[in-house]
Structures are given as C-alpha cells and as structure tokens.
Amino acid sequence: MSLLSLRDVTRVYGLGGAQVNALDGIALDVELGAFVSLMGPSGSGKSTALNVLGCLDVPTDGSYRFRGIEVTTLDRRARARLRRAWIGFVFQGFNLLDRSSALENVELPLVYRGIAPAERRRRAREALDLVGLADRGGHLPNQLSGGQQQRVAIARALVTEPSLLLADEPTGNLDTARSHDVMQLLSRLHRERGQTIVMVTHEPEMAAYTDRIVHFRDGRVERDERVPPREVPCPA
Amino acid sequence: MSRLTNALRLASAELTRNWSRTALTSLGILIGVAAVIAMVGIGQGATASVAEDVAAMGSNLLMVEAGASRGPQSRSTARPFTAADLDRIRREVAHLSAVSPQVSASATAAYGGITYDTTVTGSDSGYLLARGWSLDAGRAFTEGEERSGAAVCLVGATVRTEVFGGSDPVGAQLRLGKTSCTVVGLLQTKGENTMGMDQDDLVLAPVGFVQRRLVGSTDISSIVISVDSEDHIDLALAGLELTLRDLRHVRSDDTVDYTIRDTREMVAHMSGITTVLTGFLSAVAGVSLLVGGIGIMNIMLVSVTERTREIGIRMSIGALEEDVMLQFLTEAMVLGAVGGAAGAVLGVALTGVGASLLDVPFVVEPAVVVGSVAFSALMGVGFGYLPARRAARLEPIDALRS
Ligand SMILES: Nc1ncnc2c1ncn2[C@@H]1O[C@H](COP(=O)(O)OP(=O)(O)OP(=O)(O)O)[C@@H](O)[C@H]1O
Ligand SMILES: [Mg+2]
Description:
The complex is a heterodimer of chains A (236) and B (402).
Chain A: E1 4-13, E2 20-30, E3 35-39, H1 46-53, E4 61-66, E5 69-70, H2 76-86, E6 87-90, H3 102-111, H4 117-130, H5 146-158, E7 164-168, H6 176-193, E8 196-200, H7 204-207, E9 212-217, E10 220-226
Parallel strand pairs in A: 3-8, 3-9, 6-7, 7-8
Antiparallel strand pairs in A: 1-2, 1-4, 4-5, 9-10
Chain B: H1 2-17, H2 19-57, E1 61-66, E2 69-70, E3 74-75, H3 83-92, E4 96-111, E5 114-123, H4 125-130, E6 135-138, H5 143-148, E7 152-155, H6 157-164, E8 173-176, E9 179-187, E10 202-206, H7 207-215, E11 222-227, H8 233-247, E12 258-262, H9 263-306, H10 308-316, H11 321-358, H12 366-392, H13 396-401
Parallel strand pairs in B: 5-10, 7-9
Antiparallel strand pairs in B: 1-11, 1-12, 2-3, 4-5, 4-8, 4-11, 6-9, 7-10, 8-9
The complex binds adenosine-5'-triphosphate and magnesium ion.
The site of magnesium ion (MG) has 3 residues of chain A, from helix 1.
C-alpha cells in the first residue's frame, strides 16, 4: 500500500471568471521510503500539490488518502492532528522563529506534542547533531548562515520522526554549495533512515539526488520519471 | 498543566520583549482598577464614619418632633409639646432611661468684648445621658437649677474657643442676648456630624431658662429620649406611639402630627446616601476598567496581525487551534493581571490619600483587592477571546504566506 495516493485531485482558486485550476486532475502515489522531487515551471501547481499532501490545504475535488485515511472528508481539527502526528515541513524561507535559539526552534514541535522538557531537550540535541549543528544550539537564526538555518529547519521537521518529510524548495534561497550540503543531508536521511521525502525544486541538479522526478505542467502531471540508480553525485 | 506553564512562559517572554507596549496596554486596566478600589475604599470609609457619627450622637436615641414628617428635613407645623406631655411619657412608656425636652433659640453670646452668634439649647441633664455627652470641666445642672430654670449653662467646645479663647470659662458670666448665665461646665468635643454641622457650637441651659428668657413661651419643640437597651427600641417605640396618639388625639394614620426618628433609621438613611454615592462612583470607575479591557482587545488584535507568520509557523509544526488560542488568551490574561495588580497597589495608596483628605477611616477590604486583580485577569481573558480566536482560526498556509 502506498503511503499516500492522490486521485483526480483538483484545486481551484478564485471564483467565476477569475478561476485558476492550480491542480487539474492529478494522480500520484508515493511509497513508504521514497525520495521524490516535484519539478515544473512556475505556477504549475507544485506548491499547491505539496500543501495538499501536507494536509495544509484540501482539494476542491478528488480523493487524497494518507496511510489509508481519506483526508478530504476530515475536518480542520482532524487534519491538524494528522499533520501533527505524521508530517514534517521544510520551507524555502526556513520559517524559524527568529527570537528563539536554534535548539528552542527544534524543540518547539515536541512542546506541542506534550513531551517532557528533559526528553524534549535530548531529542532536539540529537536532531541538531543529525544535521551537523550540535554546536550551534544556542545561536539565534540571524546568527546562522542560510544553509545552517535550513538545516535547523530540517532538524525541526525531523525531531518528531515524521513518516513524511515535505520540503518546498528547500534550496531555493541557498547558493550552490549550500544547496548541495542540504541535498546531501536529505539524501543521507533517506538512505540511512529510510525517511520518505517529497520535495519541490527548480534545479535539475538538486532533483538528481532523488529517486523519482514528477514533472508538473499546468496543474497536471506531465511526466513521472524514475531516476536510474547512480553514484552519489558530488558537489560541483 | 505543562501546556499552561508553557503558555505562561511564552506570554511573559512576549510581554517583556515588548515591555513598553505591555505597560501602555496595562495602563487602562491599571487606572480602572485603581479607581474602583479607591472609590469602594473611600465609600466604605465614609460609611464607617457615618456609623461613628451616629454613635457619637448617642446610641438608642429617639427624637420626637411636633408635626408630621414630610421627607427627611421638613415637617408640617403642629402644636408643640408641654412639660406635662413629657411627664406622661415618663410614666407610661417602659424601658426609657431618659426623656428630655429640647428647645432651641439663637442668641448672640458675649464675654469680655467678644461676641459670637450661636444656638442656645434648653434641656436637662438627661439630655447629656441620651446623647452620651460628658463634661471636660465643671459640673452638670443640679435638680434644683433644672426645676427653677436657673441662669446657669454649659458651653460647647466651639463657643469656648470663639468666646473665651484659651481661658477657663467655668465660673464666668456669659451674656446671651439680653440675658446672661453663669458657666458651670464645659462640654466635651463631638466634632462635626455627618451633615457637616458643628455639634460643639452650642450653649446648653436648663429648659425653663431658655423658655422664659429667650423664647418667651413654655412650648417644647422636640423630645430627646434614650432607650435603656438596643433590644428594647421596638418595644419603646410601640409604647411611645400609643401614648403620643392618645396625647395628641390622633384617630387615624393620616392625622398623625408628630415624627419619631430613631438612630437606626438615621444610620440607614445616611449609609443609604453613601452607598448610592459609592455605587455611582464605582460605576464610573468600572467604565474606565471597561475601556481598559477594550484597550487590551485592540492591542491583542494588532499583535495577532503582526504575528500572523509566527502563528502560521507554529501551526505548521504541530500547534493545534487550542494551542494558539491558549497562547493568546494567556497573554491577554497576564496583561490584565499585571494591570490589575499595579492598579491594586495604586488604588490602596489612593484610598489612603483620599481617606486622610476627607477625614474618613482608612478601610481596605482584602476581598476587593484580590477580587479586582482576579477580575482584571478575567477581563483580559474576556477581551482577549476575540483576538485569540482570530489567531486560532487562521489557515496555516495563509498565515505562512503573509
Ligand atoms: N492563494 C492563492 N490564491 C489564488 N491563486 C493561487 C493561490 N495560490 C496559488 N495560486 C495559483 O495557483 C497556481 C499554482 O500555484 P503554485 O504556488 O502551486 O505554483 P508553483 O508551481 O509552486 O510555482 P512556483 O514555482 O513559482 O513556486 C498559480 O497560478 C497561482 O497563481
Ligand atoms: Mg511554489
């Protein structure tokens, strides 16, 4: 059984004449342990699809099953719980709380899950260690480089051990060298821990780290491409 | 529980980070709470002072005046009382410890070239008992002096100061208009009564003297009666009514031509006035508290708008609606409580200042202080509800996009 499966999903923005079909009949299956990238021109519906996958948004029409659960029939609250239980997010703009230290940012998801402080701290340190920032826990986001901030954001998404890690252009704000750092990190998480990852990217170079590339165009899946097994690419 | 401690921690971090805004937002509540506490405190002080004043007037006191009552200050004119009426009351009504006449006349007191306009009250020594009045110097009237209406008198503290200055008045010959009397004693100071009338501005003389030399008739306008114990007041009142109705040939309720006032009624009347006044001022103060609450709502709404992105981030990493709700409600509650606590301190201080300015006892009810702090916190929650709900209802993706 797939971890998630979209069937005939549409997402329509706006009303009447100004309607935009951001998603226009999408079908997509992602297996547990997959490493998938979504590519396509700007406005082709990649972010919209990712938001639907992350239960942040609901399709206008169609079916979305996550772990066998039909998400489209859930209410807002149930969706929030589902999201909290299984899904981790990484955003292009990092979205760290800038008044909280790196460690506090990573701890935050555990706070909302009612984990005791000592346990919280331990797991947050572990997650920071995993992304190679064990020594930066006390830094505020603005005291970290963009790449480091993105790694903190990844640690924050991973600290809850989600079944699904979603990342919307995680390298979009980074230079090439930092981008490769982040992709190597994601790739390692996938390889070593079997982490399921779905990410959006514009850059073929970054998509090349993944096992499968789904090409979007005008709210549809244009092409679903398996990336042949390869050697681990090296940073340019 | 850890949810709440976490929310408190977040709230205090947010509020200290923005401390000047916190201070300004709390200011409204602070002023409101301070005003309420001060108003209630001063009002309670005033009530206590009324009770003290009435006690000073003499306890278990009944006053009988000729004429039917037409409201608190006015009476219809009616036949005055006579000495025989008083004798009958003494004979027929049980549980009375004193029944004294009261006849008043204004006169100009003069001594050693100093003149002073005052009131001369004619009565007997029972009057001192009824009004709980003791002497600072000298003696009261003798029975012989009372019976004959001798030219002797007791002076109140104000008359003593005005007319005699620092010197000892006992033994002096005090002129009262065209007549004069020998001062035999000095009345203890009573101060002002609740109406602000100086109770020490009088000369007390035997009733016969005042009737003959100053009024020119044997009329008695009012009777001052002391009941032997508080428990007997109702009994004494009933007996008094019976005797008076018979004395004055009253056949039905609407021909009653006398008025009985008792101390309890005066206390009730006076504390009624202070209660209404206190209530009114507290209501005004309450409005400023309300305005303070609206101030909290305003700032919280601004804060929600400013922090939309933060809310989006929190929701996308696992905060549920109720977490966001709790965070903002807690913030509003802390804002209210901070303002309330500071307001309580200021309010108690204001009560102290007000009490000393108005010369009323300093009364602070702990319940009022605790209550207003709790109430401010509650107001914070109440007025924080709308902003908090607005925050909690944000869609995470919309919030993140902002
Ligand atoms: N909140 C919204 N309201 C109205 N239209 C929207 C909204 N969000 C997205 N759209 C529209 O839906 C379409 C798909 O947007 P989406 O953000 O999914 O594109 P994308 O593939 O992520 O593009 P990009 O590469 O630029 O991020 C676009 O035409 C966009 O204008
Ligand atoms: Mg996008």
